[in-house]
Amino acid sequence: MTQEQRQVLFENTARAIDGASQATIERHIYNCTQADPAYGAGVRAAIEALQAGKSSSVDVNSDSV
After folding, report:
1. How far apart are alpha carbons 39 and 36 in whole angstroms?
2. Which end of the chain is flanked by fewer CB atoms within 10 Å, N or C?
3. pLDDT tens column, 17-65
4. Is the pTM of this model over 0.85?
5. What is the 3-class SS of 18-32, one letter each residue?
6. Is the separation of the CB atoms in 40 and 28 below 8 Å?
7. Which class for 41: exposed (0-12), middle (13-18), buried (19 or more C-beta within 10 A)?
8. Cα 34 to Cα 15, 27, 41, distances in angstroms
9. Is 56 left (phi over 0), alpha (psi -120 to 50) or beta?
10. According to the model, what pLDDT value does residue 54 have?
11. Are 1 and 16 in contact (CB under 8 A)?
12. What is the DSSP letter of 56?
């Protein structure tokens, strides 16, 4: 698998698990890490990037709630 393919896999996994409880996310990362430590690290990084992107895209000055 190329690095680009691995990155797509990590990002797809992050989007698929988005909205799950933190306990479920941590369990999934643990399982990924058991399969391959680099896989677990990549999934964790993609999840963190997705979550950071969501929090940074919130407009605190918006009038709509």
Report:
1. 5
2. C
3. 999 999 999 999 999 999 999 999 999 999 999 999 876 544 545 454 4
4. no
5. CCCCHHHHHHHHHHH
6. no
7. middle
8. 21, 11, 11
9. alpha
10. 79
11. no
12. H
Smallest Cα–Cα separation from 26: which of 37, 36, 38, 17?
A: 17
Query: Structure tokens of 40?
Result: 């677990």
What's the CA gap between 38 and 58, in Å, rounded? 31
Nearest CA to 54 out of 11, 18, 9 is that of 18
Instruction: Using alpha carbons, list the distances in angstroms from residue 18 to 21, 32, 43, 55, 57.
Output: 9, 16, 12, 13, 16
* Two tokens, residue 41: 């690290």
